[in-house]
Amino acid sequence: MAKSKKRKTKVKQTKRAVTARKTKTKKGKRPVKKAVRKTKPAKRTTKRKATKSVAKKSAPGKPKTYKILMMGAAYGSLLAAKMLFGGHKIHHVCLPAEADLINAEGFRVRLPVRGRKDPVVLDSQKLPGKVTASGTAGVNPKDFDLIGLAMQEPQYRSPGVRELLDAVAKSRVPCMSIMNMPPLPYVKRIPGLNYDALKPAYTDPTVWDNFDPACLTLCSPDPQAIRPPDEKVNVLMVTLPTNFKVAKFDNEKGNVILRQLAQEIDAVRFDPGDGTKIELPVKLRVHDSIFVPLAKWAMLLAGNYRCITADGMRTAQEAVHSNIEEARSVYNFVNDLVVKLGASPNDLVPFEKYAAAAQSLTRPASAARALQNGAQNIERADKLVQLIARQKGLSHPAIDAQVALVDARLEANRKKAAA
Q1: Are 244 and 284 in contact (CB under 8 A)?
Q2: Nearest CA to 381 among 290, 282, 306?
Q3: By mean pLDDT, which of 4-8, 334-338, 392-396 is the weakest?
Q4: What CA dihedral angle connects 390, 304, 177 and 227, to 10 degrees?
Q5: CA neighbours closer than 13 Å in the CB half-sphere of residue 234
Q6: Beta bridge pairs of residue 245
Q7: Which of 150, 104, 109, 144 is nearest to 127 (CA)?
């Protein structure tokens, strides 16, 4: 018993010694534990940084801002004004007096908005983007992401403009024509035509020789606008606020830009000065079909060119509604021709819709005004349609008569200028 008690006491003493040693060891390691605590915040900081970096990568980036060259500052200022909302930089090529005024004061576009008595004024100097202007000298198309052609077709053979247009062609920068007259390289995107036979419709077809059709598209200038004659040349007044309709490029680089511009213009909510945010008309619609912009052809031949008369001009409203059955016949003939070229009827605009819009067109078309002012060349979309129709074995007596009339008026202006 005495021996057993001694052994139990020894075991207890041994346990106490082990416990004491453990306690002593723990006490000795306290500084190490403190060091571990110090390193923990460092680990947490590293984790936070990694999380923040991942969040940046996953967050959508800001839309890219583009440099856009616009050849023309009259009608071109309408689409330019809408693109400025995206913060883009736009450079207009125009006449020296126009350039000086735009650089000093910007430009202003008066835009009618449904439900408002007075038009909204878009002042380029108050919009997010930036506008500059100059003549043709020193402009390098390769400095830009997108180029807009917003002059009348005969102007592209003018000295300086011709050379710049050729540089645009050779640059292969995506180029969007905003003309009633489709550039010849765009027409080459329509299969099955004899393109050389269409050259007589162009003032100088050689200015288009170096374009790659894949880098050129057409935007139908459906919105109507004028420069008020009693105001400065940096003012544009919109008279019919419809949408721009552009066919996509055969080059995806250009399509990315077009889609971004279209989305930005759609998203605009503008404060006209009364604290409200209103949606603005005149959108940019991007279409897969190359025939959608050609819906304008029927409107041009049923309305615009019929503003030209033997001894003067008349309004587009009169051109359509003074003989609406003939206007309808011409309109439907042209639409049928475009369908034969490959368009879907859904690409086109019904005559009734156009005729209703024409009720508000109380001014003569620009082609008629130019002829009346002595122009020796105008855009000849009328002749282009006539020549294409002939290749398909088709003709319309009213179109043939109108083409002959325009030919005669131009010849008279040339003779008068040469006298």
Answers
A1: yes
A2: 306
A3: 4-8
A4: 160
A5: 21
A6: 220, 285
A7: 109
Confidence of residue 51 (pLDDT cuts 50, 70, 90): very low
Cβ–Cβ < 8 Å for 124, 81: yes
Under 8 Å between Cβ of 189 and 210: no
Short-list 213, 87, 90, CA closest to 145: 90
- What is the distance between the alpha carbons of residues 241 and 238, in angstroms, rounded to a whole number? 6
b or e along 142-177 (b: 16 or more beta carbons within 10 Å of the residue's beta carbon)?
Answer: eebbbbbbbbbbbbbbeeebbebbbbbbebbbbbbb
Q: Which residues contact 316 (CB under 8 A, 6 or more apart)?
A: 303, 304, 307, 358, 361, 362, 363, 364, 365
Q: What are 299's two structure tokens?
A: 């409107």
**115/110 Cα distance (integer angstroms):** 15
User: How far is residue 171's CA from residue 157's CA, in Å, rounded to a whole number?
Assistant: 18
Rounded Cα distance, 59 and 399, in Å: 57
What does residue 377 show for φ and ψ, rounded to 5 degrees? -145, 140
Distances in whole angstroms, Cα of residue 298 to Cα of each of 58, 181, 239: 48, 12, 20
Alpha carbon of residue 94 to chain centroid: 19
Residue 16: the pLDDT is: 52
Q: Compute the distance between CA of residue 115 and CA of residue 112 in angstroms, rounded to an integer.
A: 9
pLDDT digits (tens, 9 = 90+) for 341-352: 999 999 999 999
Mapping DSSP to helix (H, G, I), strand (E, B) and coil, where does residue 34 land? helix
